[in-house]
Specification:
Chains A, B: InterPro entries: Aminotransferase_I/II_large, Class-I_PLP-dep_aminotransf, PyrdxlP-dep_Trfase, PyrdxlP-dep_Trfase_major, PyrdxlP-dep_Trfase_small. The structure is a homodimer of 393-residue chains. Chain A is an alpha/beta fold. In chain A, the strands form three sheets. An eight-stranded mixed β-sheet of chain A has the order 2-9-8-7-6-3-4-5, with helices on both faces. In chain A, strands 10-11-14-13 form a four-stranded antiparallel β-sheet. In chain A, strands 1-12 form a two-stranded parallel ribbon. In chain A, strand 7, helix 10 and strand 8 form a beta-alpha-beta unit. At the A-B interface, helix 1, helix 2, helix 3, helix 4 and helix 6 of A face helix 1, helix 2, helix 3, helix 4 and helix 6 of B.
Chain lengths: 393, 393
Amino acid sequence: MNFEFSNRISGVKASAIREILKMMNDPEIISFGGGNPASETFPVEQLKRISDDIFNTCPNSILEYGITEGDGSFKKAAIEFLSRHETVVKDYDGVMVTSGSQQIMDFLSKCLCNEGDLVVCENPSFLGALNAFKSNGAKLVGIDMEDDGINLEQLEAVLSGVQKPKFIYLIPNFQNPTGITTSLEKRQAIYTLAKKYQVLILEDNPYGDLRFRNDAIPSIKSLDDEGLVVYAASFSKIIAPGMRVAVMIGHQDLLAKCTVAKQTNDVHTNAWAQSVMARFLNETDMEVHLKKLQAVYEQKCNLMLEEMKKQFSPDCKWTIPDGGMFIWVTLPERIDMPEFVKRAVEHKVAVVPGNAFYDDDNKPCQSFRMNFSTPTNEQIIKGVAILGALMHD
Amino acid sequence: MNFEFSNRISGVKASAIREILKMMNDPEIISFGGGNPASETFPVEQLKRISDDIFNTCPNSILEYGITEGDGSFKKAAIEFLSRHETVVKDYDGVMVTSGSQQIMDFLSKCLCNEGDLVVCENPSFLGALNAFKSNGAKLVGIDMEDDGINLEQLEAVLSGVQKPKFIYLIPNFQNPTGITTSLEKRQAIYTLAKKYQVLILEDNPYGDLRFRNDAIPSIKSLDDEGLVVYAASFSKIIAPGMRVAVMIGHQDLLAKCTVAKQTNDVHTNAWAQSVMARFLNETDMEVHLKKLQAVYEQKCNLMLEEMKKQFSPDCKWTIPDGGMFIWVTLPERIDMPEFVKRAVEHKVAVVPGNAFYDDDNKPCQSFRMNFSTPTNEQIIKGVAILGALMHD
């Protein structure tokens, strides 16, 4: 049997990162390649106690079918948590629980994009989102990243073009893969442009609560007053990713269509995960919980940065993130990046080649992504030393 | 903001059934409308004990990211369970865990269908599947159901047409919504036609283990020797639907593409659900467990059939299922079906109007679907009496 695949899925390759994740099972590999949260931050005891209590008091609530939009108690708790510093749920908004925020990328592009429609993204950006957009027929238009967010001239050139993009995909806080935070000025300017050209924004904020330096910056969603911004809030990085729970917030007309997409995909998100998270949010002093996480990420990030300063070649550059999980390293021209990454793996250190994150992964690229949340301190010290030695070879 | 939706999602309406499910929250309504398994069959104590034990011994295995294809231990346990009577996993097959079998409908049609491509379905068929196919651009071609499965002449006419369909969607056991079981002869004939015209079959088997009458019939998948059949096995009806776990089995080349679709959708299925189910399958005498379920379903089905015989008008017809959860009732021409269903709801009994299950829901239809797994015995007796009275009005 010779299978003929649809046009929209044909061009999407298996994620380079998830292939690297499989390699992580090699216990000898020091992986800076993944994007896993630090497992020592998982609130195991609390989740266990809550789960047990739910089984004792209302087991059917987690075992029977639920509704597509999500468990009411979880939605309420999540909205309260997400609204504690700013208004991300507007009067005109709908809210839907999804099985991880990856589903938000898939459902939004499925509902909005015909084949050949444009989606604007940061260049580089999160590979999983780019693949979701492509798998729904979208054509990616990457906008260069600068130290404070995307280049505004390039953005306006695209928005004012003949073919109006369907939406702009942004990760304003400690972006994946660069670790860059978009400044308030740029968030405002981007929103103004989106409004001027009436193009939607998908604001992805998986890392916002993992800030360990400098002050929080308002989300673009909080600036919105006409339903232009869809907001993706993940609980993977602040509770646990294996539970696969996120929340999609956006104009109710748009959310109604995305609810149909979810109905035809997984009907509803795992009911146990929603119930346990609802209770966790309600019973936990989240500020204390987040401070603990932030301290872990800060320590790991700073250790990695210090070691890089000691070990990496001085003609190598890297970002200094205010939070999140990633550092973006750019090699000098004298070093061939793909060759460097290959040699690193041979020396048992995994990083992700930067070209994987671009709208066109065949473009020449001198950068790679390093993750600091997953490795131990010992692995950070040893792995950075190995990478540093390879730069000096 | 005026949202412009993609062509493929525009025509898909919110599921009529899921709207009815919301109505079920009205405690006065007797619902024969849903498709929920009987909650008294959920193995609560076992699931609780296993869940607790996993939290105690290996919490990170359920809290950290997993791999897209699914948890190895669950896949192994599931394959062993599904293979106990027949060979559904062939040498050339791949296996992927999905978040409910609804995802299999979505991923397969996403990977195979361009806009306007044909998908053949039983007429009537499972609404969630039909919507998933439509949401990926497929055009449905319904084949009339007969007492022993679809009409073969109609099927061959479609398969031999100018536009070759991408696949044939079938629920051979106790079909949703009709309760009809496709005979072995028809399964063989359908497979022979699929082979002759080289068209894939998606065999959906959510209810197979809920057989309480007559002997099991081999799956079409077990007859396949060249990778033409994709098999959807759900654990929603035999363990618990809120956990959202199913298994997709099909040719490895096809599964590799569907893995990409899942990667860009929810990355992987909830890890807790997979781990708990793996242990449940390994530790449980599944034949004993299934016998218990079958006895519950048999009792409820027989009670409903007996009450219908007593209460329904003699010019009314219905199917007698060998298992599953549904009975398909056809009203005489003198009764207007949509009007009847509306009056039933006014009298606090919910059933699903049959037209919802057709490739074209505007076609005139005299049938409705009744579910016997969710209501209590008292509700069955009372609800059937109310419906009966309405027939005699």
